[in-house]
Amino acid sequence: MYRRILIGYDGSGQGRKAFETALGLAAQHGAELYVLAVAHPPEIGDDVETEAVIENSRHHHQQMLDELKPPAAAKGVTARFEVAVGHPAEQIIYHADRHEVDVIVVGDRGRSKFTRWLLGSVSKQVVHYAARAVMVVR
Ligand SMILES: Nc1ncnc2c1ncn2[C@@H]1O[C@H](COP(=O)(O)OP(=O)(O)OP(=O)(O)O)[C@@H](O)[C@H]1O
Ligand SMILES: [Mg+2]
């Protein structure tokens, strides 16, 4: 029985597919769905524009999440949407722990054009480092 589910969403096709799976699972189980998009900050430096770049990225990720609100509402799922800033896998695991979710859902691939590997580096790290169940959607 799943009570809380976290999905990592990066706006990619596979990310969307993973979201649909997580949403279906949440609807079936009457679970709460945490939808997390992680904006990565630029390299640390003394760039005066860093703040603006992060703010811009945050806004972009928030818009990505806004598109998911209608489908979640249509399924009657209680969904919480959050944008985090940092390392994607680290943030996914951190928020999964914080909300004590029963399962983390991610896609097998993301936005990268390089499809040399079967799994993207974010999903690979989540599977490797998370101390809870992970579902990789193919
Ligand atoms: N920034 C992010 N925020 C939230 N979830 C993410 C983020 N990046 C990836 N994910 C999740 O991880 C899944 C796999 O994406 P991943 O980034 O690992 O693959 P990739 O982009 O193809 O390869 P890579 O990023 O390693 O070059 C996505 O479908 C999504 O569920
Ligand atoms: Mg990626």
Descriptive labels:
single chain, 138 residues, five-stranded parallel sheet, 5 strands, globular, binds magnesium ion
What topology emerges from the helices and strands here?
Elements: E1 4-8, H1 13-29, E2 32-39, H2 50-66, H3 69-74, E3 79-85, H4 88-98, E4 103-107, H5 121-129, E5 133-137
Parallel strand pairs: 1-2, 1-4, 2-3, 4-5
Helix pairs in contact: 4-5
Describe the 3D structure.
With 138 residues, the chain is an alpha/beta fold. It is built from 5 helices and 5 strands; from the N terminus they run E-H-E-H-H-E-H-E-H-E. Strands 3-2-1-4-5 form a 5-stranded parallel sheet, with helices on both faces. The longest helix has 17 residues, at 13-29. It starts with a strand and ends with a strand. The mean pLDDT is 94. Adenosine-5'-triphosphate binds next to helix 1, strand 2, helix 4, strand 4 and helix 5.
Fraction in beta strands: 15-25%
Unreliable stretches (pLDDT < 50, length at least 5) are none
Secondary-structure-derived class: alpha/beta
Number of helices: 5
Q: Could you give the count of β-strands?
A: 5
Overall morphology: globular
Average of per-residue pLDDT values: 94
The helix content is 40-55%
Unique ligands: adenosine-5'-triphosphate, magnesium ion
Widest sheet, order of strands: 3-2-1-4-5
Radius of gyration, in Å, reads 15 Å
The major β-sheet equals: 5 strands, parallel
End-to-end CA span? 22 Å
Element order: H for helix, E for strand:
EHEHHEHEHE
